[in-house]
Amino acid sequence: MKRSISIDGHRTSVSLEDPFWDALGEIAAARGISVAAQIGEIDHGRKGLNLSAAIRTYVLAWYRDRASTEAG
Predict the structure, then answer these.
(1) CA-closest candidate to residue 8, choices 44, 50, 47
(2) How far apart are CA 21 and CA 4, in angstroms?
(3) Which of 12, 30, 33, 69 measures 20 to 30 Å from 41, CA to CA?
(4) Fold for domain 2-71?
(5) Model confidence, pTM
(6) What's the distance, Cα to Cα, between the start and end of the chain in Å?
(7) In this structure, how many other beta carbons lie within 10 angstroms of the beta carbon of residue 59?
(8) Does position 72 have pLDDT exceeding 90, yes or no?
């Protein structure tokens, strides 16, 4: 699903599957920030990836880290 968001004052659209949007919302809520702020952080930290790929990678890494912490 494609959604429009604002990052640093400019509008862009991001296409992600619904489970990634849901996960991104869960992560943002757990961190006490908005989804837009979360995407802004991901955008600033991406290295050569397009924004959709950077978000997917971030979500995967967040849940992997959480799983390893709970297993350890």
Answers:
(1) 44
(2) 12
(3) 69
(4) Ribbon-helix-helix fold (1.10.3990)
(5) 0.90
(6) 35
(7) 21
(8) no
* CA 3, chain centre distance (Å): 13
CA angle at 21 for the pair 15 and 25, rounded to the nearest 5°: 145
Cβ within 8 Å of residue 62, ≥6 positions away: 23, 27
Tokens linked to 27: 């992560």
Could you report the per-residue pLDDT of 3-46, keeping only the tens digit for each?
999 988 989 999 999 999 999 999 999 999 999 999 999 999 99
Measured distance CA(16)–CA(5) in Å, rounded: 12
Q: How many residues does the chain have?
A: 72
Structure tokens at 44: 């600033």
Contact at 8 Å (CB) between 49 and 57?
yes
